Amino acid sequence: MHVAPVGGTAVQDHVALAEIELCGELIIAASAAHEERLSLESIDEVLKVAEERNASASRRVTGSRR
Predict the structure, then answer these.
(1) CA 25, CA 43: separation in Å to the nearest integer?
(2) Mind listing the pLDDT tens digit for each residue in 35-63?
(3) CA dihedral 10, 17, 60, 62 (to 10 degrees)
(4) Residue among 19, 53, 52, 25 at smallest CA distance from 38
(5) C-beta separation of 29 from 46 below 8 A
């Protein structure tokens, strides 16, 4: 059996971590919702879709990248 050495050989997948965080936000929102399912608008609000669209549009206008 091979065990990873102590001291930090762990690799972080930042995309996976971000996706896990978004899933957590959706789970919290769904558990707090009064309706049976979250509406598409509620999901967009939780995932901050409008904010990202505005930021993306702003980057296109200014020509900058993330």
Answers:
(1) 10
(2) 889 999 999 999 998 888 888 888 888 77
(3) -60
(4) 25
(5) yes
